[in-house]
Amino acid sequence: MYGLFSLAMTLLAIGGIAWSYLAMCNVLFLAVSLLDLLLTPGKRDLSFTREMPEEMERGIRYTITIQVENRSHRSAVFRMIDRIPAVFDRPFPLTGRIEAENAVRVNYQTTANERGKYRIDKLYVRYSGMLGLWEKQVTPEIEGTIRVIPDLTATKQYLEGAQQFLLYEGMTVRKRQRGQGEFDKIRSYVVGDDPRMINWRQTAKLQEVMTNEYQPEHGKYVAILIDCGRMMGAELQTGNRLEKALEAAMTVAAAALQNGDHVSVVGFSKDIQVYVPPEKGMAHLQTILHAIYNLQVEASESNYAAVLQYLQSRQKKRSMILLFSDITAFLQEESGLVYLKRLRQRHLFFMIGIEDETMRTRATQSSDDVRQAMVKSIAQKQLLYTKQQKTKWERQGLSLVETEEERLAASAVSQYMDVINRGLL
Amino acid sequence: MQKRSYRKTWLTLAVFLLLFVGLSYVMQGQQPEEYPAYLSTSPSPTGTKAFFTYLENERGTAGRWSASPERLPSEKDGSMLMMIEPSFMPDQKEMAAYQDFVEAGNMLFLWMDNPDGLFNLQTRQQMADPAGTTTLNAQDGEEYQAELSSVFRLQEQDTDEVLLEDEAGVIALKRKLGDGELIVAVTPEWTMNRLITEKDHAALLTKLLDDAPTNEDSSLLFDEYVHAGKNAAGVTKLYPQWLLVLVVQAVFGTILWLWYRGKRFGPIDIPREEAVRFSDEQIQAVAAWYQRGRYYRDSLIAQADYVQQLLLERRGIVINGDWKVAADKLSSRARYLPAYEIQEYTEGLAEVVEKPSISKQEYLLWSKRLDRLREEVEHR
């Protein structure tokens, strides 16, 4: 606006203008702008409230509403920036116009890209009056907390159709094995059923061939260990390793709880961060979710020995222990592995990690300069070492699995299914 | 604890600041006061005041002229105006006034290092004489010794009367303008306190002054007008008004714009990139260390081991460090690499790994060859 005014002054000056006249024009302009400032609504005349969900799922779009109320007799044009953290998508500034003695609702949509608990305390607003020569800035304090929980898409997919979810893994949800598991129900005999399982008493009663069906035993104990150490902070294509591990843990927990098993969860790094004692029933899934949603990657190395010791003192019943961790870090920690040997006398132990895609690319990159060649050779050395260590420990009966990042949940669930179906617990 | 250390830092900083201010004040105080140069009232080492006082006492005619040249007498009364090293170029109007003054039959002395452009004078540049002392030839054939710092020499016209010259060119000349005369010399330094008594400077000055035909009632004026900074042509005369208005408005506009831009609107964010970790950080660090230590051999062995492992896994070829054996086994089933190349690689590799030191070029070459071998094994 002032630029336009200046341009006009300059044009006048080409025609010839006195300096005093110019100064007067400037002062007049200032006076008009001050008048405009005087006529914009006062800072106390505007009030703001925010409506937002208390809980958001990561990666899903939610709507947040801000209500603006104007108690003054004059209208205003406003711009707003909400103080949501940078992990959210921020379609700012929001603009709008509010009439005198009126209220408007401004909506915006946002997606959280990282889990956690966030405090949202402020709203930044700038508004101007009729001419828009001055803008007033207010930052009302609107306190609010938002919980961003892990992406539960995989869990929901599993709960909707377990078999569909595990299709790619080639795993059947319920494998019938003769004489194993507990009696489930009696149903009509179909070709292919084991003739030895025919329930002759019912067949005689109903004049139709009936057969017994069994299902794996339930009420088992599953302990899920989630590593929050330094190595879990490594960036993947979407999110980091801990993010994927949490999603997979939630899916396994859902699967186990649905089957009627007891699930306990431990989050740890240098020491124990979260412990959820074993419990059964789908309601327990919420408890687990609220306990682990705010787990963050720690800067320290994880202490495997401490967590295994802790678990042994808490988990007295024979249980399946599923550790989500980084395989390289895990293998480098000799003390934890030694401790694991003792643990395995009572419990079933499985470790599941995410394949290091970066390392694999580094190991196969071309060697165009010395630095690249060096990085390549170190990556190859590291891969070779991990492979050797893995073979060594697998020979002793430890199960260490590495999968791609998007299939972590599926392979964790199939690991669990396999154990249950084979009745190993 | 933290608070105390902060306070300590601030205290130290304040002490140093005070020390700095105090010291700089003391240092400043010891320096001699600066006086404006070439002013007849200023006791500066340029010596104009001394010259003025001498003329005042000896001739009793010296005066000062600090008004605008337009008010100089325009009738012939034999006035002399002494203009020593003007600090700015007078504008066209003022130049015309000076011209009128001279043409009316008065004298003007101009002592200036480079008077190019004033009164249609022209100069040319000469190589500076390193010795600084030159022999001057006067009009009457006499020789003088003098110090010259100016690298400019006057260009005389046919009507000019050359007063002084040296080998390089004309140093002082007299030019007739209308009824009056203009005496120009490129040597304002002769009147300087430290030089006036050296060589033949005093004699030269008197000689030049004597060239002016003076009578009893003629006055000698020292021009102060050309030294007063406020008389210089201001910006208002140099630039058109519309440009000045634009500048003034732009200054105000910039202040407003800076205020608008400088006021923060919105939160302060820490970029996510600051906290993100990558899984290859460790190997990058180790690689940098290897590179600095020039562990080329270790690096090559690691790469060879990797290929060896791949050969075992993919092709079932056991090497156990003996690469020469691998050539036949590999080349019989190779798909991409020709047999002779495999032969060359495997045999060469055995030798390279045994070498005590490997050069950078060799290292790169063998890294690339191992890449080729690895690709051969990996592609099915």
UniProtKB/TrEMBL annotation, chain A:
Q: Which Pfam families match?
A: DUF58
Please report the stretch or stretches of sequence annotated as the VWFA domain.
219-379
From what superkingdom does this record's organism come?
Answer: Bacteria
The record, for InterPro entries, names: DUF58 (IPR002881), VWF_A (IPR002035), vWFA_dom_sf (IPR036465)
Output this protein's name.
Answer: Uncharacterized conserved protein, DUF58 family, contains vWF domain
Q: Name its species.
A: Sediminibacillus halophilus
Automatic annotation (TrEMBL), chain B:
Q: Where is the DUF4350 domain?
A: 41-209
Keyword set includes Transmembrane: yes
Keywords (A to Z) from UniProt: Membrane, Transmembrane, Transmembrane helix
Give the top-rank taxon of the lineage listed in the UniProt record for this protein. Answer: Bacteria
Where are the bilayer-spanning segments?
239-260
Recorded protein name is DUF4350 domain-containing protein
Q: What organism does the UniProt record list as the source?
A: Sediminibacillus halophilus
